[in-house]
Write a structure and sequence with these properties.
Layout (H helix, E strand, L loop, with lengths): L5 H7 L5 H8 L5 H6 L7 H7 L4 E5 L2 E4 L5 E4 L2 E7 L2 E13 L4 E9 L2 H14 L2 E2 L1 E2 L18 E5 L2 E7 L6 E2 L2 H10 L4 E6 L5 H17 L4 H6 L3 E2 L4
Parallel strand pairs: 11-12
Antiparallel strand pairs: 1-5, 2-3, 4-5, 5-6, 6-7, 8-13, 9-10, 10-12
Helix pairs in contact: 1-4, 2-4, 4-5
The structure holds zinc ion (ZN).
The site of zinc ion (ZN) has 8 residues, from loops.
């Protein structure tokens, strides 16, 4: 079952974890509290409850030959393998969630049908939600607002390397289409990117971007620099 609004969650959710119970009792009132305490979210409903404005996107992983060559992107990737009982199909989906304001999560899951794979991926994405550092690290701009990222960051996954580079206001998202979904969910409006390696493997490409965001989060920043790049740590209080 997927929940689409806070109202749905409040009427149907019976928490199974301590954190879930604290959320429903009002002892925990924001996702920031969970991050600050370093708690691990084990129920997707916690995210639905605390971030009612949460949005979901499916990152298209699959591809079928399109008309006139090229590939037509499809939501799930299908793999088939032979099994004693015959041909066995597995569907894999990649989903992202975010609040378009500094929070982003990614989930990857498989299932025997597309719907199951997508729902599982969406739930995992919620469990993996994290803050994204935003700012303006563009030397052409230096407006000190959070429309881009504060510093350049490089991420890797498999043989894929992706550089995320701060861009000036109004530049827009100069990234591949599927990656744009991540940026929009995170609330990043202007960004350049460069990638190397087999980026047609969408899963590795998207995971490399998440790796770049994780590295950006770990970067030690001096107080003076925080101001000059307009660093915004995820969410405003
Ligand atoms: Zn700027």
């Amino acid at each position: 079952m997927t929940y689409n609004s806070k109202k749905d969650v409040t009427t149907t959710w019976i928490p199974k974890t301590e954190i879930g119970r604290k959320v429903i009792n009002g002892e925990i009132t924001s996702i920031k509290e969970i991050f600050d305490k370093g708690l691990k979210i084990r129920e997707p409903e916690i995210v639905d409850y605390l971030i009612p404005e949460i949005k979901e996107e499916i990152i298209y992983l699959g591809g079928v030959p399109g008309k006139g060559g090229g590939k037509k992107r499809t939501p799930v990737r299908v793999t088939t393998r032979m099994h004693q009982s015959g041909r066995k199909r597995t569907l894999r989906a990649l989903a992202a969630v975010g609040n378009e304001n500094g929070l982003l999560g990614l989930g990857y899951a498989s299932g025997l049908d597309a719907r199951t794979a997508i729902e599982k991926a969406q739930k995992k994405a919620k469990l993996n939600i994290m803050t994204i550092r935003r700012g303006c690290g563009s030397w052409e701009c230096s407006c000190s607002t959070a429309h881009s990222i504060p510093f350049k960051s490089q991420g890797n996954r498999g043989a894929v390397t992706v550089d995320l580079i701060p861009a000036p206001k109004g530049m827009g998202l100069v990234v591949a289409n599927e990656a744009k979904k991540l940026m929009k969910l995170a609330g990043i409006k202007d960004l350049w990117s460069k990638s190397r390696g087999p980026t047609q493997t969408r899963l590795n490409f998207i995971m490399a971007i998440m790796n770049a965001f994780e590295k950006l989060n770990k970067l030690k920043v001096m107080d003076n620099d925080k101001k000059s790049v307009g660093l915004l740590e995820g969410i405003k209080e």
